[in-house]
Write a structure and sequence with these properties.
Two copies of one chain form a homodimer.
Chain A lengths: L2 H28 L5 H22 L10 H25 L3 H12 L15 H29 L4 H7 L11 H25 L4 H12 L17 H14 L3 H10 L2 H4 L2 H20 L7 H16 L14 H10 L15 H19 L8 E2 L2 E2 L2 H27 L4 H12 L7 H4 L10 H15 L3 H6 L2 H4 L2
Antiparallel strand pairs in A: 1-2
């Protein structure tokens, strides 16, 4: 395999990451402290080798073989995670293990953290965390729309071939689609920041939380996460933008053109909306209101559940104290996720939807053995190659969670900590369950090896698992 | 739907159960105590309505429509569970909830128990528990070989069409196959009892444990389960017969005719054997031997792991104290199971095998998008109707465990108790994890509703889920 194109893409990624570090450096510089120095050093560490690689491997008209895309895509995220960790090492003086965990958790929009004392931290480092998630969210969406379909991973094939509405009869060029998605992403982020500010956040907090809300990332500027701003209105604003970040951006773009009916015509969006309403109403009915009002209960339950469903991972309170129903529910809600073509991770609505349809089709077949039943979506038959890809995804995520839980157990973690860490990492949610990694906890006390494995799981989850699984076979590297 | 044939089969089931009660009655009578009375009462309660039903609904040449088989099969197990509970109510004076749980756990060969003080209990009631499992194991095997394939549930179709060896070119009549399976089952049970007795069990304990070993049930005559007889030799004998009970009986019959190479030629058996060796060696390497010998460690780890893999559920010690690796491992081992066509429950080896092959096929497809790859077993392509049935099974078991865990959580159970109870019930294993339902615990303290739900889950698991799922649809009852 020719390493030239791979190293070229790596160099471009590093240049982008290095440039990104100049933003917190500038903020630090304008703030009048010495805070900017670690960011300049990190930028130098990233940009100097990056430019060397760039100059060596730049070729006019680089051609990438589809098969190389698996390795390149994985390398891009690994390199982004590694360079993203430099500011944490140089600014916070934490170990590379912790820094890599924090960086990978950021860039994959997971949101698990090993940092304590966020409320006292300087603006540049908090901004760096938010930027990682914001860029990671956009990067994931563009990857899901532009790259993964080329190599047959992820669910966008389903929507590419079957929803012809958004294309206006002619498929727009990928670059054009990417630009429109980017513009919408920026616009949503600005709007979200403005709303947060309007509802009482400081400008800095509003900008940071907007970046980590729209990207469904979940990093906060406070150890209390959204618990710092848990007024009813604020939680609903956050809920709204987490949901928007979890909708397919192509459908959102269409809705902007033809009106909100575009949303109601999309099978996946309708299913996702229905799932949220059903789960949050059930949750509210199970919540012990005590002396609080029903509206407040509805708000708090909906906010925290939507935060998990959309794989954001903000928390407004320690929901693990709400009782057995909620602990179990929050574990399994990690395996839902937003829509395909959004910033959200995990299983995603369309996979759950098709899985339920496959189950229902199978039951119909048992009742009418001679009948012919097919799984449909958007009024068309779902191609068997899509259902088999989907089944492989379920097996892959199942095996990953099982293997990782057992490995974490072997490191001495109790079952709930091991299982929920494994689940929250591979689904890119953020908080786990239990005293250590739960909503009131922090990933810092975990052993170093556990942090590396969890960071790897975040990467696996972000790359829809199969992208990385392919790299682990001999067949990929042969021939 | 004509209820006649259904009620006829129900009556036959009740007659069989009523007759079965005469065995512990006789044992009690010969023992010279009044212990036989509750069994005679139970037999009367079962036989009198059964004979009435039988006389009313007996028809010459009863024809059963394949579609009725779903309801009839489910009814048979429910009726067996209900009538099996009578002796527990009348002899042990426990609530009907507890009695039904115990009876269902017996007849489905699960092995979870609500009874404490087994060591002090009288012989007839201990024998009744063992008989329930022994009959349940045989009943399940015959159902899997003779009935489920007719309605398209379970994996036997795969072996029926693809393994022509055991049929000697002509498919033997079902009745003949059933008779041979029954004879082998009796022979294995006798041999197992003899070995137990030879290695030091009392005759009564040997007979009871033999019945619950070969049926992969796991009921014991002691609260300590096999901890009462945890000598190295005894544990290996038990391990051997648990494995034998988990092998496909048709392949065992063939091995008796043509020699042990029949076992090595069977894909599923080879995979199952490999899985056991791999898992138990890994387990042994993770076990903290302390002052004990390696052989002892190997014995204890292998015994308890094989007991879970084969869905038997005997325990020789409280393995939940072995550390995080084992707690996680025992949770996931519940979802393995023995071979199709054996007494074992759970997912079963062939489904894991095909799932892994589907995953590997999908990865190959990603690497070579234009290649044609098929899932093979026994050197033949696995029919897509079988893979889609298998996928539906995975979704069904996943949804059942999720739903049940959340429901148990809502009743106040902690996550580990809820999750492991749900898992151990639907996989027909027996012990769960945690202080309450773990290897050292007992299901008695659970709330009544939890016991009903778990008994239902045992039934679901034993009927390969889909048999019951079909009954829950409107389409089944229409037309």
């Amino acid at each position: 395999m020719n390493p030239g194109p791979i190293l070229f893409v790596v160099s471009v990624t590093m240049i982008a990451m290095g440039d990104l570090m100049l933003i917190p450096a500038l903020v630090g510089f304008l703030g009048g402290t010495q805070d900017y120095e670690p960011f300049l050093e990190s930028a130098g560490l990233t940009l100097i080798p990056a430019l060397l690689l760039y100059l060596i491997f730049r070729r006019p008209g680089i051609a990438i073989h589809p098969r190389q895309a698996f390795l390149i895509t994985t390398m891009v995220w690994v390199v982004a995670g590694v360079s993203g960790s430099f500011p944490f090492v140089l600014h916070e003086h934490i170990s590379f293990t912790d820094a890599f965990f924090e960086s990978m958790s950021g860039i994959t929009t997971t949101g698990s953290t090993v940092l304590v004392g966020l409320d006292q931290m300087s603006h540049p480092i908090l901004l760096w965390r938010s930027l990682l998630q914001w860029v990671g969210g956009l990067g994931f969406m563009l990857m899901a729309v532009a790259i993964l379909p080329l190599v047959g991973v992820g669910g966008m094939r389903l929507f590419r071939t079957e929803s012809s509405d958004w294309s206006d009869k002619t498929l727009p060029r990928t670059r054009d689609v990417a630009a429109r998605i980017g513009a919408l992403y920026v616009a949503l982020s600005v709007l979200c920041a403005f709303c947060y500010w309007l509802f009482g956040m400081s400008a800095f907090d509003a900008i940071n939380h907007a970046m980590t809300t729209v990207s469904t990332g979940g990093y906060s500027t406070s150890d209390a996460s959204m618990g710092k701003y848990d007024a009813t209105g604020m939680l609903w604003i956050c809920t709204l933008f987490m949901v928007l970040g979890s909708l397919p951006f192509l459908v959102l773009l269409q809705a902007l053109r033809v009106g909100p009916q575009a949303l109601f015509r999309d099978d996946q969006v309708v299913f996702f909306g229905g799932m949220i309403i059903l789960v949050t109403l059930l949750g509210t009915s199970m919540y012990e209101t005590g002396s609080g009002s029903t509206v407040r209960a509805w708000t708090v339950v909906t906010f925290n559940m939507v935060s998990t469903i959309t794989t954001t991972g903000f928390v407004s309170t320690d929901y693990s104290l709400w009782g057995g129903f909620f602990v179990a529910a929050f574990l399994f809600l990690m395996f839902t996720g937003g829509c395909s073509g959004s910033t959200a991770g995990s299983v995603k609505a369309f996979r759950i939807q098709i899985a339920l349809k496959m189950l229902s089709t199978q039951i119909k077949k048992l009742i009418h053995p001679n009948g012919v039943f097919v799984v449909r979506m958007h009024d068309r038959m779902v191609d068997p190659s899509i259902t088999s890809a989907l089944v492989a995804f379920f097996f892959a995520i199942g095996l990953t969670v099982i293997g990782l839980t057992v490995a974490l157990g072997a490191m001495g973690l109790d079952l709930i900590t091991a299982l929920s860490s494994a689940a929250t990492a591979v689904t890119n949610v953020g908080p786990g369950l239990g005293d250590i990694v739960g909503p009131a906890g922090n990933f810092a006390p975990l052993p170093g090896l556990a942090k590396w494995l969890l960071a790897l799981a975040m990467l696996l989850g972000r790359l829809e698992l199969m992208t990385v699984f392919v790299l682990l076979t001999r067949a990929y590297w042969r021939g």
